[in-house]
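Pilot study result, target chain (457 residues):
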Amino acid sequence: MAETVIELDLSVPWQPPEPPEPRRRLQGRWVAVATALTVTLGLLVSAGPRSGAGLLYTIEQQVLRAQTAGGRLFFARYQGTDPGPMIEAHDLIDGELLWHRSAEAQQQLVTAGDDVVLLMSEDRTGAGDSSALVVLDAATGQELWKRSHVTFTGTTGDVVVVEDVPDERRVEVVWPDSESDVNRAFAQPERRFLGLSARTGGQIWAVTVPQGSDVNVSYSNTYQSRLDRFDVLGRDGRLTRWDARTGRVRATHQLAWSGVSAMFDAGWHDETGRAADRVVVYPEGSPASQVYELPTGRLLFHWPGAQGSGLFRCAVDLFCSGDSGGMDAYDSTTGQHRWHLDEQTHALGMAGRRLITGSRFDPSDPGPVALVDSRTGTVFKQLTGWHVLTTGRRPLLWRLVDMRTAMLGELDPATGVVAVFARAENWFGNPECSVDGEALACIVVGGLSVWRLPSRH
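Predicted structure:
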């Protein structure tokens, strides 16, 4: 089927500045000393707010991490005078600076919500590891509380979930042999998870996971670390499902299995929002995995692949697995092979019975996009040249126009039509994006741009 693209009004043309020199993408910790910058806070917004869909403004400083929440834009950027980053909050639509504050050299912006902003610091340069969580008021930037010796797990509603790390100690992580064809488990010591009030830091609940048990955390929004629940699988095959907001047990299930779990996965949702009714267990020392029905605990089928095989729930009644040779779908009850795709290698999102798929086995460069009918494996629409920005309720895509310009569009999975709503200048690589309501924010090579999304009819 021929590709359909709708061009919307792109508003007044914007003259971009000269493209920046390519910079190595920064990950993990902050750089201790940043390059001095000549642009002041008052010059951050280089393009005024626009009406209608399209570019609202850009922020050209070296932005490290950005998130949108509650009508605000939060991001961290380098400072020219201090070793740590600057944390800033802006009005999402007009770009007005609401507050800013300096952060310590090791602090990172980990997530933001309507009411709070979370910063996390980790230091592994000494004899032991140390960590601290700092929580700010999203409206003012004032520090609400802090807690040391914890690692951040996620948030759910007005609760922040952390894992208690009582001692500052060196944690040596030994990764399994990448060439191993069997499942290998990490050490499984006793662990303690805490649910803390987002506003006060007061403890709401505590759950201790026994030694030898495996933990699987489920996120409803992985980008903003929004937790749904966490599951604990004991060596006796008992799976306990905890509510991440209350710390109460939601359900328990006895699997027809016992032993040491190298990994297990029970964190999917289908398009109805229902919790997963399947669990995949990767037993220690085994070259394969096992799929169980969660309500009954019975074994459904064996999967001939270790924990690196990429088995995941891709539709209501399907598991998928992809590698450089393509993508295959299997019945989630019997394991029977349903279909195979040669060019598509992984699913990027799900919209009803349609899968949004990519054609390269590389998350940082997902390749061209296609819409696939999950029932038959038929490619409904090949979207040549398009790449995924975000999936979920509003699938957003981008496509290069030339070496420095891209088109931004919204995909209608039902028809395969891409409605273009903006042109993005200074587009030099894969972006990091966040969507909140009516606006999209993306970082490309340290520059941040914000666009208003088109109205939905």
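One observation from the pilot: The CA atoms of residues 131 and 194 lie 15 Å apart. A full batch analysis is planned for the follow-on phase.
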